Amino acid sequence: MAALQDKYKELIDAVNTSGVTGAQINESDGVLHITGTAPSADVKNKLWDIYGKIDPNFLTGDVVLNVNVATAVAGAKVKVVTDSTNLNIRKGPGTDQPIVGKAAHGEVITLVGKANEQWWLVRTNDGEEGYSYAQYLTPVE
Amino acid sequence: MQLKRMLPAFVMATALAVAMPSCKSKPSDADIQTKVQTAISATPGVSADVKDGVVTLSGLVGSESDKAAVETAVNNLKDAGVKSVVDNIEVEPAPAASVAPAADALTQGVADATKDFPGITATVSDGVITVTGEIEQSKVKTLKAALDALNPKKTDMSQVKVK
């Protein structure tokens, strides 16, 4: 128990000191589970940077880091953070759903709501509305 | 004189008395069939043929235990004249549907999360995501974050080759 928490001490300290709400840090079956809601996308990114520094490329698999961003609420502006490609906007929440539109890499669109933590309902400035994968969207502060 | 007249009757009676038990120990196949039929009636789908006291069972049952139960029931009819049992009953194969469970939410989530990573394969077993394949270093964080967001027990990327 202590070994994992020692290894990821810097990450745990960051979670506890950077305003993450509802933070839970549990260890089960040799995996440290860290969940909570970060006050901003910057804080979430900072946590991931610390995690990546301790476990390069995240290959060890002894941490599950599941942090949401508090500002990702209905009405918020979100930026498309794909690698370089356009982001698909789909009719429903799932990759099996038909594509009804695209948002460009770097484009700022509106978060309308959430089907779940994976699929967000978004609207582009052109008025295209549908579901996009949340990992490619980050709130703009 | 009276004794002489009674002698044939006495001989006949003795002959009958001797003949009776041998008759009893050798029931006809038809008699055996009747008893066997009763014994196997509890298990639908099974039929029996009797020849010289040898019972041949055939048909189709739902399980091995049904098959064994019928065979035992008929074997217990030794007193009724069953000499032996040939069990040709076949057991119906179990339906294949129970082998493949429906894809659960985590499996679906993993499929969605890994769609944009062509070199990556991820499988789900007992809440643990196991990832294999090759990925560019710049995309590792996005992949790991997407998988961790599905709340797995573990995201095992130890077999992933980072380019």
TrEMBL record, chain A:
The keyword Ribosomal protein does not apply. Residues 76-141 form the SH3b domain. Residues 73-141 form the SH3 domain. Keywords: SH3 domain. The keyword Protein biosynthesis does not apply. This is SH3 domain-containing protein.
UniProtKB/TrEMBL annotation, chain B:
It comes from the Bacteria. Pfam families: BON. Residues 24-93 form the BON domain. InterPro entries: BON_dom. This is BON domain-containing protein. It comes from Arachidicoccus ginsenosidivorans. The lineage of its organism: Bacteria, Pseudomonadati, Bacteroidota, Chitinophagia, Chitinophagales.
